């Protein structure tokens, strides 16, 4: 080994290495509004009359959206807007719209009780 090779090895050994980084991007998932999902599902079920849970969640982009839609269906059930049918245990879940067209008022009341102010959860701006 010559002095040039030794200098190259020494330079590589003395070069500071970057600090290891722990990626945290996957931990901070975006928020999903259960109210928004309830309004979306109410619209779909009102027009279709009935649908399977699989069909209602087919376009969800993440597991978080599926969970929010399930919670939204539970809230709609609690309000008496939908009914569920499941013929066999762990079988396909059928969701049927049973409320009238005035269910929007009940959704607004539910949103007020849960503290959600509007569809986008953003404060309104003053126009002065």
Q: Helices, strands, pairings?
A:
Layout: H1 3-14, H2 34-48, E1 50-52, H3 53-56, H4 63-78, E2 82-85, E3 94-97, H5 103-114
Antiparallel strand pairs: 1-3, 2-3
Helix pairs in contact: 2-4, 2-5
Which terms would index this structure?
mainly alpha; 128 residues; three-stranded antiparallel β-sheet; 3 strands; 5 helices
Question: Would you give an account of this structure?
Answer:
The protein has 128 residues and is mostly helical. The protein has a 3-stranded antiparallel β-sheet with strand order 1-3-2. Helix 2 runs antiparallel to helix 5. The termini are far apart.
Q: TL;DR?
A:
The protein is built from five helices and three strands, in the order ααβααββα.
Mean pLDDT: 81
Please tally the β strands and state the result: 3
Structural class: mainly alpha
Number of helices: 5
How large a portion of the residues is in β-strands, by DSSP E?
Answer: 5-15%
**Can you list the strand order of the major beta sheet?**
1-3-2
Enumerate the spans where pLDDT stays under 50 for 5 or more consecutive residues: 116-128
Question: What does the overall shape look like?
Answer: elongated
Distance between the termini: 79 Å
What's the Cα radius of gyration?
26 Å
Profile the largest sheet: 3 strands, antiparallel
H/E element order? HHEHHEEH
Helix content: 40-55%
